[in-house]
Amino acid sequence: MNPQLPIVNVLDTLRLMSPELFLFVWALVVITVDLFASRKNDSLTGYTALVGIVIAGGFLAFAGEGVAFGRMFINDPLALFFKVIFLGAAFMAVGSSFGLTKEKIQNHRGEFYGLILFSTVGMMFLASSQEIISLYIGLELTTIPLFILAAFYKDDKLSVESGIKYFVVGAFSSALLLYGLSFLYGMTGTTFLNGVPGDPSATHMASLLAASHINYFGGGNSSGFVILIANICILAGVGFKLALPPFHQWAPDVYEGAPTPVASFLSVGSKAAGLVAFMKIFLMGLFGYISVEMKPNDWGMLVGVMSAVAMIIGNIVAIRQTNIKRMLAYSSIAQAGYIMIGMIALNQHGVSSVAFYTLVYLFANMGAFAAVTVFEDNTGSTEIGNYKGLAQTSPFFAALLSIFMLSLAGIPPLGGFIAKYKVFAAGIDQTSFPGFEWLYWLVGVGLLTSVFSLYYYVRVIKEMYFAKDASIYTMTFNKPILMVLIIALIGVLVTGLYPEPIFEFANKIYYSFSFSVIK
Amino acid sequence: MILSSLIFLPIIGMIIVMLMPKEKEDLIKYVAVGISVIPMVISFWLTYDYFVNFSGSAAMAYMEGPYAWIPSLNVNYHLGVDGISVPMLFLTGLLSTISLIASFSIKFRVKEYFAFFLLLEAGMMGVFVALDFFLFYVFWEIMLVPMYFLIGVWGGPRKEYASIKFFLYTLFGSIFMLVAILIMYFTSDPHTLNMLELVEHGGTLSHTLQMTCFIFFFIAFAIKVPVWPFHTWLPDAHVQAPTAVSVILAGVLLKMGTYAMLRINWPMFPDALQTLSFWIAVLGVIGIIYGALVSLAQTDLKKLVAYSSVSHMGYCMLALAAYGSVTAMAGVLFQMISHGLITGALFLMVGVLYDRAHTREISAFGGLGSKLPVYTALMLMFSMAALGLPGMSGFVSEFMIFVGAFSVLNQYLVGIAVLGVVLGAAYMLRMFQNVFLGEFNMAKWGGLTDINGRELLTVVPLAILTLAVGIYPKSLSDLMSATLENLVQIMSR
After folding, report:
1. pLDDT at A218 over 60
2. CA within 20 to 30 Å of A383's CA: A33, A410, B429, B435, which one?
3. Count: domains in chain B
């Protein structure tokens, strides 16, 4: 069943890595272009960045699958799928930023776009890394530019607070993650997380840990306790990145303070990066490990509790928000909770549902944030109350934002519904395995909280449509953000009405994981 | 093709309406009605053709598919109709056009209104023809969105509360349905979402699983019907919604609940049905009596009609509990049709009066009979139909329900239910007396005009059908008898 990946020579390595290499160079190009562009020409830098992302996408199509650098760098379906998501998030974040760089960020356009591209490069490396050192570096390259981006309004108190907060939390969580990873290295003596399909002989964590199965039956070995600590540290580290409770407190403040396109990039790109890291470490590296103290089922249950709390807290606190960015922050906490259901359902449905959900989330959330950016560009406000009566003055804008909100709420026939269906189906499917019956409860919490979530998503629609009087504002779009909105709209509709091609791709991801061999 | 056209013509209509300039309000109205006439005519033809060619057997007719839609999830595009869905399609086609005509009184944001209405029609048609669970669920949910907007934008003073309550209530039910669908899917082997195959599969499940799935489906559908105690969204939604939307709510949306029970819940879980049928009958009887008593106490005309719906749908539940009797099952369908016709018409009539008088308080009126003779005559007829006067469809359905239920169910229970008929007469006659008889207040209501031609166009077809079904019910019962006999056999297996 497992497709074999070719192991390539040095020259082909360049081909495999070409999107990352290109994007890295292009980020420098963007910064340089800005030096020569005149202040009045406010969109040249932005367009340069957009073009670069499109070209990187072209390289990605041409890169193909394979393994390079002595198994450190791998392009499997998982990596490719998530790289598409990262590039999409970068494209949409850059496309939404033109209004900002016209007015608010006049002097550092090159740095702004360049940092987004650097962060994207980090995410893409992360998706391709098969061992913990490069994984960690990828994660750092992802987050460090984001610290700066969050604080990009230098004169704005909220933005600076947001940057500092994100930096402190990010640094702390990275340290925790690194601490946990060092335990894993100490126990196994290797940094490789998992073998490469087609090269089963090599040593890696998954097989070494699986070999200590014996502990489970023989007992007497205390490594189980160490791995328990490692698990908790890693879970906390990744949990911060994903904003899973109890590590979620930073998210609303950071989202509110950061420039809106940055918040959108944070909520989708950086969250997807966290998901990949989670998949790599837990589903690839630690899956095979079974001991008295920690079975895959047990960390699954721990994550399950976090996911349930995420859905409950995210959805209930979002109801009380009056600022749309804070509301979307809590919504994104809840959305991460839904995704985690797919993550702990260790079956084909599960892994592909995580990928599919993330893709739909990219379109719906980036679309919603882009609409919020349009409103902010036009009015300077992010209060939900100010959206009153927009349906009459800007029907196109209102319809778009409504569609994104309904997709986030999971109303068919939009992508959000198919994604939620797939995640819940994965959860229910897994209940047939002994020890996983508790997933019924998790799915139940997910379904119930998705009813609560409807209330606050629909509240924005209510403001826009139900008011008697027309709004005093009329929305005008600049071209790039209109393009972003339309891409997001098409994405939400296609994933809802004809998701099959995406499913076919997402289903392949399953073969990157060792449990596809075990079961 | 023919069933797909019922779904997609309104969607095409919606797109056309959306592309029109919003200033041309009259044109939009005519175009929307014109488009909805096509599915109506198709549904009429379908009813006739089914009656002539297919009514002899219980098999699905006009099957489309299954065509693969999302193969990874085993989701197919699969449509078909039988003797219980054809009358529903007829009702949907008819009431959609009638309510669109009744919507000509909408004064603001006309374009959005008619676009949402056509989307609503597509969703309703889809629910009645879908044979794939996923597809069914998608249509069931799609309908909520336009309904939410129709109540929320064009509704009465408490529209925001009523619309979100409707949305949340139904969605709350839907999640139970979704869990039950997933359980059914993963316990079947090979995994399937085909309703017809799952009907076979459901009977082989363990008793516990049957009970779980049955109750989950029941919650989803009972909220829609609505069965007491899940009915509290209904008075709010009905009273706040604009007239035409109330007609659709009462005429079609409530029927989806009972239709889904007949299509999914009842045949799929015979053991659970046997265990729970008594309690379903109890809920039905509570609904009948409770709805009638609350109607008696209403001072608002529309609220009175709304609560009478709770009572009338209670009859459906009572009959559904008597699943062993073909007569009772036929009674369910007759009650669905006749309630759709009569209550739809009553809402239209209340709307006519409200448009002129701007109040619905029963006590504000009196003696209208002398000023509005045509209106009063029609209202008299529909009130009589609602209280079950022989010769009208309401009598036929109630009679069938009681005969069927009496032979199968606990007879004391049915005896209590018969009280509902008396109470029904009481609230209808009280309303009629207070509004149309007595002394006429010339100073206040001297300016009222009688029902106009457009409004007549909306209610007269309903009056004719009410009489037709009441006088010659055999046409309708022949249409569905084969399907119902088969259904009773499956349910009693």
Report:
1. no
2. A410
3. 1
Residue B202 is predicted with a pLDDT of: 82
CB A482 within 8 A of CB B170: no
Contacts of A500 in chain B (CB under 8 A): 69-72
A207 Cβ neighbours under 8 A, 6+ residues apart: A195, A288
pTM (predicted TM-score): 0.93
B215 in contact with chain A, both atoms CB, cutoff 8 A: no
Question: Considering the domain boundaries, does residue B291 fall inside one?
Answer: yes
Residue B53's Cβ-count burial label (10 Å; 0-12, 13-18, 19+) is exposed
Per-residue model confidence (pLDDT) at position A296: 56
Does residue B423 carry a pLDDT above 50? yes
A428 to B182: CB separation less than 8 angstroms, yes or no = yes
- Backbone phi and psi for residue A345, each to the nearest 5 degrees, phi listed first: -80, 100
> Which of residues 289 through 308 in chain A touch B, CB cutoff 8 A?
none
CB contact under 8 A, B160 and A466: yes
Asked if residue B490 has pLDDT above 90, the reply is no
Q: Which of residues 277-316 of B touch A (CB under 8 A)?
A: none
Judge whether A396 is closer than 8 Å to chain B, CB to CB. no
| Facing B164 at nearest CB: one of A392, A422, A455 | A455
Q: How far is B175 from chain A (nearest CA, A)?
A: 6
Q: What integer pLDDT is reported at residue B59 of this predicted model? A: 82
CA dist list (Å): B281 to A425, A432, B267, B321, B424: 34, 35, 17, 5, 19
In a domain, B94, yes or no: no
Hey, are the CB atoms on A422 and B73 less than 8 Å from each other? yes
Question: Domain residues of chain A, as ranges?
Answer: 320-519
Q: Which of A122-126, A233-237, B26-30, B487-491 has the lowest mean pLDDT?
A: B487-491
| Residue B82 belongs to a domain | no
Domain annotation covers residue B5: no
User: Which two structure tokens, joined as six digits, stand for B193?
Assistant: 């979402």
Task: Give the residue numbers spanning the domain of B479.
Answer: 270-493
Chain B contact present for A393, CB below 8 A: no
Residues of B in contact with A403 (CB under 8 A): none
Taking residues B32-48, what's their average pLDDT?
92
Looking at residue B332, its amino acid is: V
CB contacts, 8 Å: A353 with chain B: none
The whole-angstrom distance between A468's CA and the closest CA on chain B is 8
Q: Does B245 contact A at CB distance below 8 Å?
A: no
In chain B, residues with a C-beta closer than 8 Å to the C-beta of A352 are: 72
Judged by CB atoms closer than 8 Å, whether chains meet at B152 and A465 is answered as yes
Kindly determine whether residue A412 and residue B71, on different chains, have CB atoms separated by under 8 Å.
no
* ipTM beyond cut 0.85: yes
Across the A:B interface, residue pairs with CB atoms under 8 Å apart total 77
Nearest CA in chain A to B144: A411
Cβ pair A447:B141 closer than 8 A: no
The pLDDT value recorded for residue A290 is: 53
How do residues B359-387 score in pLDDT, each as one tens digit? 888 888 888 888 888 888 999 999 999 88
pLDDT score for A199:
62
Given this model, what pLDDT does residue A471 score? 86
Inform me whether the C-beta atom of residue A447 falls under 8 Å from chain B C-beta atoms: yes
